[in-house]
Design brief:
about 25% strand; homotetramer; iron-sulfur (chains A, B, C, D); six-stranded antiparallel sheet; 22 strands; Rossmann fold
Chain lengths: ~475, ~475, ~475, ~475
């Protein structure tokens, strides 16, 4: 999948390690796939919070030698962010750090609140000012205005007023608090390293710093870490657990374990299921790299067809590519992928991708493969048609840009010029993501089904906070 | 004067011109001497505010072609800032721009509030969060919480709660408001260009954009500019007018008119007065460039001595100079100034500077001139000894670093190794700055006399907001 | 293969297209894997040569909009370069462009001359000066001193004096000349686009610009392109054809066709052959991505074992990664690769890589896989032990750093802590690279066998031009 | 003088000091006014030469901490350069460093050869290649081809073949050689620091590093410094000494001593002489800062008129100023200078500048002063009309751009809209620059008189090496 849906954010936190900021840097580095636009770290030395934030990749923002000297202390939290167009400026970098009556607090947020606008309006009406367009700032205001004596209570009081998806990591001078929303939309895991507690959006961050994976936070769980250790709370009343299936389809790294399963294994199972649902008489299976590879392996395995590297990825794709002028425009996907004629020529080819958003990229890929001599091209998508926007933190285009929202599978097949097109069924997806187990979790499939597990106030186009 | 007291901020605003952001850029460029650390512009197109802020010089922060396309509209305000060590990060850039219940508002501030910490604590106690360490943010919070219906009333209500020095320019979607504190500590002038109203810290900004200078704002005056024109208000009860004499001594550009006088003329008059108070039998007068030049011209004129360019300034002094390693350190002032031996050798020299802060730089200059062969060196300072910190917006070092706070003139003379040392008297300074007129304005001379015209809460070292 | 042998250079040229510089940019972009340290383009408008060169990736060096306006004309050549440590400065960027008696000439070079030092010494003795440490400059000097009347003759005269490996592209105001050394060590292909002739190190460059692949240049062939079209010459006496087998093993992109074969197909065949030579009782096959993937696919296919993505690559590995301080050092390969425990745990694993250089990286990978729970680890290398340095353009470490030069396979197996280790045999490699055909080409296998097809003057350590 | 004639180059060298590269950096810093486009240092540790060169100011090019670690050794030479449009790329940075038969050699050059093109053509015809467009490369080629055994003889042999202006500093592994052309067009001084010999274009470089000024090199003198000390040679037959008078008028820093005189003193004397030649009934004298100040002081002194700072310079003029769009263009000189109305209003003003090139800037200044209320404006220029191009190293515009080349003084007066205009006479200039002494040196006045002391081959427009 290229240039389609985009991952949004990743969070990290560590408490109790002398190299807290360094380890946060490494953790963010491992979570870079969840957001490449900006990043930041806030560290505490027990008395003050210090921050370093910037636009760009982790390895660019934290490239000078002396940055870590300015982030001393045994605790730190970090954030990587992808944001929607228009909100991509410096002021929206996270973690957000503020002073309020009880001292300083910083927060890193992955997710999206569905009632942020309402709460913000109420807050503004009672005199709050907002410096960012992020719904995260709303949470901070609520905490600052909360009347409870203890921080934990103030956070709980505040989170009871917001609805939607959030995996949050807070840092104060002396504590780290991590919390998942009651639905458990976004992943958040707990680990341990040299006696320090670590939290991260995905377990791949633990692997890099060689922390031990302990468990995922439960939906609705809040953990508080301070010098006396870790405590767990369940401040919300129990709710249906609806983790985001798209994390498994596309967002998370294949070497991460989220929602109880290894992403790689789930993706292969999507491929198995897809092969069962949409078999085809073909010679070879090829993947759209890199995200389509595990599903393609599963499809090939189930179908008994050989998997080939029919599309080669150029790993030097820069962020600053200048499109040549005049006649030679529109290179787009060609800059990233090149078909291998010798493999494809004269073959009936199954092409596996994880999703189709606007359809334009798929159309280019099909044409490229056709030009390389394929006899037949059968596109198989390892997820159902994406027809509805996400309100829980995935940056989907608006419905009018989603080709599945307005076109039948037949029409899409004609548009992308494939010989056949098959999408994984919603049922098949649920079967696969739970590995056909009995203990079916109710994964959120709103982007496919339109059934939103957390209701939101009126749907006003372009008014929801930076969502569409 | 090198590396001593530093100017702090400059503000600019324009309403009603199709090139508002461009002209703000030019205005800030002319005010660059008032702050080199960061700058920013906020523009309004009548519906939204847009901002561009950054660390560095105006010509660096606004160097890309497309910046002005992102700052459309007929109104804009701008700010240049010098800040104290520690507070020099991105988040303290101005103008500050926020959303609140009534829309968006931006503000650029020159000055310093003396009760910012108290007000901030009250605000935090009632739930406000603070993103910056600037006392300017306090004013925004007060406005957001004010209950009055009209913006003008809300601003007045807020300003009645703060005390200290401020020249402020606000911008909303549809209005520009400029206001000087009742004491009139900091300058602020009103001009007009092609029918648009312009405000700026100093008149030199009008010269560059070819705006007509109309008048200075009165102390305590608030002007409101919108599509219907300009209105003036006097929301404060009358107070003693105490403009900052240091603006005339060092801060303002010599080609600016502030507090009713041309800065250049006042500086020459300081020199005349100094020559009358501390004459000396000498051969030549030389200035410490560039700020000492007008006073040196005045001194030479009054004393009937020739003025010579005995110290040549290197105009390529960079911001990133790397001190060479090992043996050849401590170039300091030599990188900026070089004495001309042929002029100085064998001469009795009067050296004019505008102030002495720590004494270390003066000591180096005296030694340099001595090494160039001077027979006698008589240092004359065109202001009184700086013995007290400023609480109204000048970034002075703390008292213990001010050599005059703890040493007699004799001791300073010995320390800087001059043959004689004379400071302008406080009385002489008042005489000169008012050009010996009858209508003596009560200039604030707190940094010399310790008499502070606006009282402040307890003086807690290192606790005042970013002051010391 | 990480941090081991490095590809060296890539060349590109186009004559007769109005977008020559733009297309060269795209061509270099596709050849980026052959050199990431510096790049450059020289263009001709028929009268003058213009150049743009710089340190860094193609997308960084050519990132400003106006660069191509300064590279006008219908012809251009380009170069990407990796160079050995110490020679990595600006002055060694290519194409080299000089003025000489007949006008201007530029050259882009892939390869290494074995007698460059001798020729350089002779040239210096007769008064030549050298601005770079590249042996390419030697060729330019020879051309400038050649006595023949025609440029073609001068180039031939010069090339007869040098020995070694070279694929060269020259550009003058009015002509483009491309030539491969008589042994044909380095690849060079000819293509056509809209009537313009194109040359490139690898055919993947043609794919991106949508040029038609015509054929590879023959070893020893020189082609000359000018406004009257293309002419081919064979200026050298026939020599044994010894293309570099390492291009197929590691350097070239898998989607390129070089030396008559698709790289991807050859790599899979290496895997097949390796499975026949070193079968093992195992559960899964995993590749060291990305270069080991095709051989792993071949191995798995031949062995009838499942291929799994057991090592996940982090695609955001930056060039400026700051190693954290103190205790948490030595991340090295962990930053790039992460094992997937769920796949590996309890399994007997075959790990396929394309080569082992120092052994340190392989050792880390084996440990990583062991820590992820593998029961057995069988390392299989899809090439023979690399025991000898390359003198024909591959940047190998010196012999003392090559673990195979001084250690037996058993010793290496113990060092990298694998359960078994198998290298492809030299014979098997020749069988595979020629696809078991009768028409065996005599690929150069000097880095494995020590049999160098082109002799070089005394081997003086560290004296060969920037080679070791 | 703004945007008119530009200084070209500065050279520096030191031999025998453990901080050679550091001191070169400081020396170049002091010489920055002689060239701001690029700079470089080459250092020798006795065995190898190492270089660091780059585009930009000294403080920018040498801004990273580790640069000096890569420039070890007891000897170093440096260069600052201004170059003409078109030749402003990286490859023309100096010092030029090459390898040749006898080892390595680097050279820094200030000046311009008049027969560079002829010599270059001869060299190319015998097989030399040229990497730069600088005539300095010609000298290196001649040295490489010279047949003499000793380096000194080879340099002499080479310099006998070139004609024109040059102050050169060479560095080999073990020696530093400095030489001035027989006419002595460009300055070059000798100093000493801690036993090490130092050479620099101007003595202000000695002042900064606290080296002792010994003497200027004689025209035609060559000095050779090695571990055994310094030796002086006179390899040329005696020639008329014709130092460049423009160095005194504009180029050199006022605190430098060149050609036997302090620049500041000479400039004041130009002012005295100008006042005698073109007195005027006026109220005040003002200078165009900064270069016009010493002459203005002299004029005021001689005329008995008060000198005032009527034009204030903005010291924050950036190199990257973006001209605002649309209506508010053409700020030009206003960005740099602002008139002080209070001083000028109603006055008869004498304005002193050092030269007029195109006249456009003078016209803007006159208008600015007129707008500030001047009653009369009398422009006085402290040099004769500049009517001829310089072939000896000053980057003058071509004749058609020089207003004096085609217009009478009356016409220029009308064009710049002054009330009267007076230029210093050629005779007066010679009187002043020699301080009315008997020992008149024959300063080169070719740019005023058209009498060129060193003849050049045919004058072909645009063909001379990068001159016009």
């Amino acid at each position: 999948m290229f240039d389609k849906l985009h991952e949004e954010c990743g969070v990290f936190g560590i408490f109790g390690h002398p190299e807290a900021a360094n380890l946060s840097y490494l953790g963010l580095y491992a979570l870079q796939h969840r957001g490449q636009e900006s990043c930041g770290i806030v560290a505490s030395d027990g008395y003050h919070l210090k921050s370093h934030l910037g636009m760009g990749l982790v390895s660019d923002v934290f490239k000078k030698d002396d940055i870590f000297e300015n982030l001393p202390g045994h605790a730190a939290i970090g954030h990587v962010r992808y944001s929607t167009a228009g909100g991509n400026d410096m002021k929206n970098c996270q973690p957000i750090m503020v002073d309020y009556a009880r001292g300083s607090i910083a927060v890193a947020h992955n997710g999206n609140l569905v009632n942020a606008m309402e709460v913000r309006t109420q807050l503004e009406n009672s005199g709050s000012i907002f410096s960012t367009t992020a719904d995260t700032e709303t949470i901070i205001h609520l905490i600052a205005r909360a009347q409870s004596d203890s921080l934990i209570d103030r956070i709980c009081e505040s989170l009871h007023q917001v609805k939607g998806a959030y995996s949050l990591v807070f840092l104060t001078e002396t504590r780290m608090i991590a919390v998942r929303d009651p639905n458990g939309f976004r992943p958040l895991s707990l680990g341990k390293l040299d006696g320090a507690y670590v939290v991260a959006s995905e377990s791949c961050a633990f692997d890099l710093i060689e922390a031990e994976f302990i468990r995922e936070l439960d939906p609705g769980e809040m953990i508080v870490v301070d010098k006396d250790g870790m405590k767990s709370f369940s401040p919300f009343k129990e709710t249906k657990n609806t983790p985001c299936v798209f994390e498994h389809i596309y967002f998370a790294r294949p070497d991460s374990r989220i929602f109880g399963r290894m992403v790689y294994t789930v993706r292969k199972e999507f491929g198995h299921q897809l092969a069962r649902e949409y078999p085809v008489d073909a010679d070879i299976v090829i993947a759209v790299p890199d995200s389509g590879v595990p599903a393609a392996m599963g499809y090939a395995e189930e179908a008994g067809l050989p998997l080939e590297l029919g599309l080669i990825r150029n790993h030097y794709v820069g962020r600053t590519f200048i499109e040549p002028q005049q006649s030679i425009r529109h290179f787009g996907v060609k800059l990233k992928l090149n078909p291998v004629r010798e493999i494809i020529e004269g073959k009936k080819v199954v092409v596996i991708d994880d999703s189709i958003v606007r359809g334009t990229t798929s159309r280019k890929i099909v044409k490229m493969i056709r030009n390389a001599g394929a006899k037949e091209i059968h596109v198989r998508i390892s997820s159902p048609p994406t027809s509805y926007p996400c309100f829980y933190g995935i940056d989907t285009p608006s419905r009018k840009e989603l080709i599945s929202a307005s076109h039948s599978i037949d029409e899409i097949n004609r548009y992308i010029t494939s010989d056949s097109l098959g999408y994984l069924s919603i049922e098949g997806m649920h079967e696969a993501v739970t590995m056909h187990g009995d203990d079916k979790i109710g994964f959120c499939d709103a982007c496919f089904s339109g059934e939103y597990p957390v209701k939101f106030p009126r749907l006003k186009s372009d008014k929801q906070l930076g969502l569409f």
